[in-house]
Amino acid sequence: MGGGEMKYIQQAFDENWISPLGPNVNGFESDLEMFLNDGVHIAALMSGTSAIHIALMLLKVKPGDDVICQSLTFSASANPIMYLGANPVFIDSEPDTWNLCPVALEEAIIDGINRNNKPKAIIAVSIYGMPYKIDEIRKISDKYNIPIIEDSAEALGSMYKNKKCGTFGDLSVLSFNGNKIITSSGGGALVVKNRKYKDKAVFLSTQAKDEAPHYQHSELGYNYRLSNICAGIGRGQMEVLDQRILERRANHEFYKKVFEDIEDVTIFSEPSDDYYSNYWLNNIIINPSVSGVDREKVRLKLLEENIESRPLWKPLHLQPIFKTSKYFGDNNVAENLFNTGLCLPSGSNLTLEDKDRIASCLRMCFNK
Ligand SMILES: *Cc1c(COP(=O)(O)O)cnc(C)c1O
Fold this sequence. Notes:
eight-stranded mixed sheet, Aspartate Aminotransferase, domain 2, 15 strands, Aspartate Aminotransferase, domain 1, four-stranded antiparallel sheet, alpha/beta, binds pyridoxal-5'-phosphate
């Protein structure tokens, strides 16, 4: 926590706004709108997952529709496609940003068109905080007239060409889950450019009540709005977001130093000056060809020292739940990343002592 959260929570109690609406919800939305600074409108929701669900509904995704999603991501990027009875179509990563491969994306779109099932949306993720190839993916989206849902659940504070992640999709999604760069204990947001989309998102996420003195429903509603208490935590966290980004980026500099003389390890970094990552998580790829040390050896060695690390996201096309889904990609980039990649401790609150312990353990793995 940053320290300012309790004053917003206390305010909610003092004013008796204990509900999924109230001044903190409105305040959190305007804090986020100001941060993204692109004339966007925000609907604060109870999770990033519910924001993706609502985004798909706003794009009128129906049972049997195809929706494209990158494979190297958390299952929450794709689960809402299934909630709607639609079909996820998974796409491999490219090696620079680990996000949507433009070549495989276009193949998948052409395949859909040939089957008379043009995909309804492209879910583009900025994985681990690294923006996807924004211009290339936008070009394809425009060429085939398929909207982008930008999943920036992990990328709040990241930028591409000095513009904030969360402003690139036709609809964009943020998350404030406990593990994200800032948290509202649980929460998410839908970011839209069109005020009508925001109004519709709020309508659907508050049980789709028609205007009438009694309860009247012509559409299927959901209970997806963010609690005013959680929004208070979010508002407090917004006060420290810039600081959190600097802390995470400092972690990246720390890991660059740790591995600077270790040939086996490539640290996942911005591919050019166009990219600015919040480095939500720091990741390395371990190529065992030099010293014979592989990912699992490093992970288990860290575990012995009570230091948690994890393999990268298991690509969704390899997950049992999605085993019948289509997949496009010829180079197994995501699968190779999964086999050789490791997420390292990346909390904003790592102490110098923590970092010393992590550094010496990691360097020991490579006999340094
Ligand atoms: C966390 C996350 C989500 C889901 O957000 P919740 O708020 O946890 O529902 C979606 N996509 C990605 C890439 C995520 O990391």
